[in-house]
Design brief:
By secondary structure, the chain is an alpha+beta fold. It contains 9 helices and 15 strands.
Length: about 325
Amino acid sequence: MNFTTSTFYFIANPNSGLQSTRGLAKKVSQSLTQCGRAVLYNETTSVENTTALIDHGKTMNDIIFVVAGGDGTVRSVLSQLIHCEIPLYIIPTGTENLLARAYGIGITYSAHLNILKHGGKCRTLDLIKSKNDLFIAVASVGFDAEVIKLLHKDRTTNINWFTYTKPFINQIINHKFPVLKVIADGQTVCQQRGLIFLGNINQYAMAMPFMPDAIGDNGFIEVATYKCGNRFSMFWLILLTRLRLSTLSRRIVRLKCKSVEISAATSENCAVQFDGEIGPSLPIKAEIIQGACKIVTPMPSNDQRYCSPLRFYHIRKIWSLLKA
């Protein structure tokens, strides 16, 4: 892949994320054009139009897709690039940008322009499929997913961190922890009250390390079961996780598997979320798609598998939010 001769095919969601980031992709594309690089810039907010743009891009030679948006936009694009040799670069403009942060992709104009002008590292990425859906980063069942379900139920505008406050408080007051059954690679590993996280990146929202050993290209799903029957035990387990002391508790169980089945005796308080969006209803079976697609990341020092997450990432995001 030659960054100097490739055509950069931009797909930007102009409504994604913070106001301060919405012109970022266009600014980067204009700078690339001024440098003499071949650029096709497209803006879209519809899934149908995104599909048409991707199909058009696939007919071209020597291109790099550049998607600007949040995790939902990135997931929509990657779902159509499974087993496709065309790489994807992410300009993160959403609220959390889980996948971009896990791979050390920056949030500044200069960082994006530097990678696209001078080149980055092309890596493979596993995706996780379930029923007729898939996710690229993190899914959850239980408390966290119920918060997201309420958030989208009352959603009228773009999401930021403050919009999570009302549904979070609602679930703190009303949530009843369901009995969840987890079967990993055919073995029952949990049948208790609690919540579950699964995915292939090592950090969730607010850099929470629910799955600290997850790797995006090792062919495994990382599953974390939090066995808790009330909000107080949940907060205790989350505190241990934040302090990276979760190995001290037997009520936090982590494992790697190729497939995982999750079910519950009742549908109440059993919402499922995929990458911050409402997912399918239980029961679900998630399976890994190894080497599903290719993404471009910063060139790591000493050829590390992952660039470490950006320092002060969330401080920068809060500052951007305050300025918006």
